[in-house]
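Field: COMPLEX_INPUT
Field: COMPONENT_COUNT = three
Field: RESIDUE_TOTAL = 1107
Field: MODE = joint
Values follow.
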Amino acid sequence: MEGLNELAFVLGGVNHWITVFLIMAGLYIIVSRSNMIKKLVGLSIFQTSVYLLYVSPGKIIGGTAPIISDDFAVYSNPLPHVLILTAIVVGVATLALGLALVVRINEAYGSIEEDEVYSDGDWN
Amino acid sequence: MLIDQFPAIVVGVPLVAAALCAIVRNETACWLIALAVAFLSFVGSATMLGQIQEYGVALSYEMGGWAPPAGIELRVDLLSGYLLVLVSLIATAVLIYGRQSVRVEIKESIRGWYYTMYLLCMCGLLGIVITGDAFNAFVFMEISSLSMYTLIALGKDRRALAAAYQYLIMGTIGATMYVIGVGLLFTITGTLNLVDMADRLAPLLDTPAAIAGMAFVVVGLSLKIALFPLHLWLPNAYAFAPSAVTAFLAATATKVSIYLLMRFIYSVFGFGFAIEQTPIPEVVMVLSIAAIFAGSFSAIFQENIKRMLAYSSVAQIGYITLGIALANATGLTGSLVHIFNHAVMKGALFMLVGGIALQIGTVRLSDMAGVGKAMPLTMFGFVLGGFSMLGVPGTVGFVSKWYLAIGALENGWWWVVALLMLSSLLVLAYMGRVIEVAFFRERPEGAPPISEAPKSMLMTAWVFILACIYLGFDTSFTVGVAQQAVDVLMGGAQ
Amino acid sequence: MSDLSLFIVAAILIPAVGAAFIASSGSKPNVRESYTLVTAALLFVVVFLLVPSVMQGARPATEGFDILPGLTVQFVIEPLGMIFAMIASTLWIVNSIYSVGYMRGNNEKNQTIFYTCFAIAIASTMGIAFAGNLFTLFLFYEVLTLSTYPLVTHKGNDDAKAGGRMYLGILLTTSVVFLLPAVIGTYFVAGTGDFTVGGIIPQDESPFVIAALSILFIYGIGKAAVMPVHRWLPAAMVAPTPVSALLHAVAVVKAGVFSVVKIIVYVFGLDLFSGSGSTEWVVYAAGFTVLVASIIALGQDNLKRRLAYSTVSQLSYVVLAAAMATPLAIIGAAMHITAHAFGKITLFFAAGSIYTAAHKTEISQLNGIGKRMPFTMAAFTIGALSMIGVPPTAGFLGKWYILSAAMEIQDWFVLFVIFVSTLLNTGYFIPIIYRAFFKAEDVPPSHEHGEAPWPVVLALSLTALGTLSLFVFPEVPLTLAKALVGLTL
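Field: COMPLEX_OUTPUT
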């Protein structure tokens, strides 16, 4: 029985495990990579974890879209979906701006490797 | 009544105006639009604050007519009103100040975009303060941050690009952490309205999800605040942004995030839980003191004056968060007063340095020799601003320090008082360096002659310098509102 | 009462407004100096109009101006403040006359800034003298420090910069790190900072807190120059002589010891201070300073530096007396403040006079100078005798009261300190006088010279006369000093 409980814990929270994995993976990429584009990729993965975090608890198995009618008694919570639509927009905008900056950095420095850009000149 | 619409006007009009500027793109027209809008926001904010003070009732606006907690609520109480006034006031002043320096620092073709971004940034900052909805705050946070990254990247130096990128990465991590925390809290409470969330969270505070949510929110906001050791993005961002942008950012951006942190700690999690049952006050106190000393020490060794002032901001943020950690009414008052006071004095100093940068073309300390003689008004203002940073009585800096010290004594933490005083010496060291170079060294032979900065810049800066002294004597606005706002914060907790 | 309170405001505003006028005079020397003299004269009149009522026991006060709840800017005149204001306003006139001669005689630059800052310094001195509570005192104490910094660094060379660094460094450090916490602590412990007869610190406060506050106050008031926070005073000697004379013999240093006396009398209260074992250390710290500073003075060849160390030692006399905290000792402290002000300014005036006329700064160069500059050296002699405490000079009175106080409580340490330091004083002043009058000139001077310009000679003669006449007519300061401790004549 004990083992079964643990299995239920692992499987029941599978969406959360994936969220945690994405958070860690995203942060790891941001910290470990020096290439500015790769960092942005990490950042996007990190942000993606949020989408899952919000949307997955709202889903009810067998639930439908929220339609006001007696026929549809079980429906998923629509609010998280709305929120995440906004978050996705924010994420896309951030990524776009980040990439634009990287393009400009590449023009100005001729490199998008962080250690080369930051070691350039004296930052003081 | 019209005043009921004010919350929507204050934050909505800048958004619409930003779109308008994007279409118009004529520099002067955009400037006028931005100035009018910023001033309108200021008048609106001040009116609301006056109204709230008079009747003692918070204003609430239901966005789109949807009643909270389902709909988004814009909520102005004493605390948010205070911050709204601060942000809109600084935004207006920096617009007046920045006209000249923007002309020098930013290419003509993109000046219209500059004002667009400026308005968006202002809209975002006002929005964070005014909204009563945790997720909406995230959206506004990203609006302000994205426009801020753009503004920073407009700096002349190519290092501005790298600084903006660095800030983008750190800022996005912070905002995402915040939104993860909000998500966890939303999962267990089913609401995003801050007031509603506080009610529903009360019985659930001990659950792991609540504690994890709180941890994410606090760490995420600390990144936005640039609380030591999460401050690394700040010095570069401030140092390489255009002068006007630096003045605006330094005075407002971090302050708004501090506001949100206060809201979460005191209103949402509640004094009884966040302060008494978690290690938040201890951790924040240690970090604040570390910020004060690390920031000030780093400031001493900077060659770039803007970077020096930026490190000094890291230290000053430490003073503000120290008040949060003291967690008594006096300390918290000190913290709120310092939010305003620091905005005024640091805004003034950055404006003056912007003037110097405009005239001599650099902000390196070694190039400032003889500036004292050539730009006496600028440097005299700088000296007075320095006094304020030092906390000389009769300036705003003293008022903040007084409250923080008394707050520490009320907790019996006399050693905090000792550290607070010692830290002033570091201020003396880094401000003194600038003053010595400016007054005691002659301008090198053959250097082009320089004169005072343009009047519009100098006068705006001086208005703030005089405010540093005026508000050091007449504290009825800052301390008065702060004390009432503290009642709101502490009252909501018990 | 209301018109008296107007006078108080006037006493602070007159020099401040004067400063604005001086600043606006640009580079017109005559206009600038007339403004200075007129301002000084006006201030003198206003201050002396206040004297009679204060002597009759009135304590004029202004309305308080609340900065924060409980933190007020307010002015109240009590006897000690009256004495201090009288000294400062009287000597400012004399010093202004002197400055005109000195600054012109030495072709100093930037004189407008000089006179402007000087007037601001005097305004803050008035603020300190009339401060009605600790916060007001602290406020003007800091303004005084900051406004004298440009005066110390007036020459603008590297020496001036180094001196200015030391000056500002020590005075600001001590005031921010020690004095401000002491002020905050007092407000916290006592709930108020208003100067009140008998003190405001609760009698049953723990000895630890009292000891801590006394340490913070004594070393926080860096201007009182109790060792080891005395180093700023010799450093400040890079300033032009009128600055050394008025500020570093009168206004600034007296603001220091004045604050010490005022805090002991009105914040601690004499009973608490003399009764509490935890404040006994002040007597020893001050006694130590008196002796060590005198010994250092013996070894100085630079005249201004010797005078500076003499000042350090004389200031600690006042602290020593105040720390005994008996009525007689407090009278002694007040009298010594007065006497030392007149005596030391005379000595500095003489030093400046020698510098202006003969361009000499070292004592070893002074052989036979008494014949060329008889007035200067006569005044110097009177000042020196006052420092030693020989009648008929004012210095005798202060020392007399301090000695009587020490006898009364049979404090052998204090008696020993006074005895030894009097010998040391004699040891470092008499040789100068001997050289000046009884040795022949060994090296002929680089240029023929007589006395310094007449304003200089006039000023130093006036202060020398003052030193003598205070001995004969000590009624006004003495009455006030007695009123300070609740005694009447």
